[in-house]
Amino acid sequence: MNKLSKIGVSALCGSLAAISAANAGGLTVAGGANATWTSLSYGETGNPLGMASGMTFTGTGELDNGSTVTINIAHDDKSSYSASDISIATPSMGTFKYDEGGGTGIDRFDDKMPTAWEETTGTGVGTGIQTVSGVGGGSDIEWALPTDMLPDGFNVYLSYSPKPDGSKNTDKSVNTKGSVVDGSGWDIAVSSTSLYDGLEVFAGYSVIPQTVNAAAGKTGDKTSTVIGATYAMGSFTVGYQISNENLQNVTGVSGYENNAFGISFQVNDDLSLSYGNQQSEQANMGAADVEVEVDSIQMAYSMGGATIKVAETSTDNALYATGTERDGTTVMLSLAF
């Protein structure tokens, strides 16, 4: 990790200067690069070689009242800023985060199954599975309640977006595209690690208001739910979760119901193995429902700053198209610096 010191937080982002006078902080830079070979059993695949390089910039500072300010900016896939967030951790009121990268609200629980490498839907095989995201799928503000207000081992997150249309705007700008979103949306996400040794349970609920009329084709607000658990015992970790997304459409797709299962095994400090399965049923108005099923066997082997990762993935009814089968093998060399 390289460190660029003596850089004030106000120099990182003009908007931070408006929060409060902050003491001089620091900026750290961490990065890595991935090189992949992806072999697919379908379509015109072309060159199987791929690469992604990335850097994450993390700036920190302290406000006069003892609160700490953190900004994270992820620079992925060679040239684009893919995610950013600004957090203020207060001494007694918890942590407030403005996020544009996803992973807040119930989006943090879209797939929490244990794996050696990647989610079953993220290995390069196009599955098309629709998971829950809530307001965390775009720009939102999240409040992580202070842990001293909660029972031991509990975490509670409240996320809010004034118009959760999935947009991610720069400062002094707004989204101008049309949307059926009609008002502000919110998520609540809860997790606990104190119920039993090695057990983590989690759940979440999201509401996104939608315009209800014939033109919009909506009968009510979009709602999403998720509940699941993981259990670690020795070298094994197992998990299971279910989620639901109700789109309230008059025609077409009315919603999704997902089930996911995963098991991982840490062979030793360097080698890990996993198996994951995910099923997603698409409910269709006036047509038969379609279920996508994905299986993925994965391995990861670390050698200091380098890791070799392999995934063998198969999909039935990919993209919610009956009879569409997709299989693929992905090999990655991941380097960290």
Structure in words:
The protein is mostly beta strands and 337 residues long. The protein has strands spanning 2-4, 22-40, 49-63, 68-76, 80-89, 95-99, 140-144, 154-161, 185-192, 199-208, 222-233, 236-246, 252-266, 271-285, 290-303, 306-316, 325-336. Strands 2-3-4-5-6-7-8-9-10-11-12-13-14-15-16-17 form a 16-stranded antiparallel beta barrel. A hairpin with a 2-residue loop joins strand 15 and strand 16 (306-316). The relative contact order is 0.15.
Question: What are the key terms here?
Answer:
mainly beta; 0% helix; 337 residues; globular; disordered N terminus
- Overall spatial form: globular
> What is the CA-atom radius of gyration, in angstroms?
21 Å
Task: Please give the number of β-strands.
Answer: 17
Q: H/E order of the elements?
A: EEEEEEEEEEEEEEEEE
Topology:
Elements: E1 2-4, E2 22-40, E3 49-63, E4 68-76, E5 80-89, E6 95-99, E7 140-144, E8 154-161, E9 185-192, E10 199-208, E11 222-233, E12 236-246, E13 252-266, E14 271-285, E15 290-303, E16 306-316, E17 325-336
Antiparallel strand pairs: 1-2, 2-3, 2-17, 3-4, 4-5, 5-6, 6-7, 7-8, 8-9, 9-10, 10-11, 11-12, 12-13, 13-14, 14-15, 15-16, 16-17
Question: What would a concise description of this structure say?
Answer:
With 337 residues, the chain is mainly β. The chain has strands at residues 2-4, 22-40, 49-63, 68-76, 80-89, 95-99, 140-144, 154-161, 185-192, 199-208, 222-233, 236-246, 252-266, 271-285, 290-303, 306-316, 325-336.
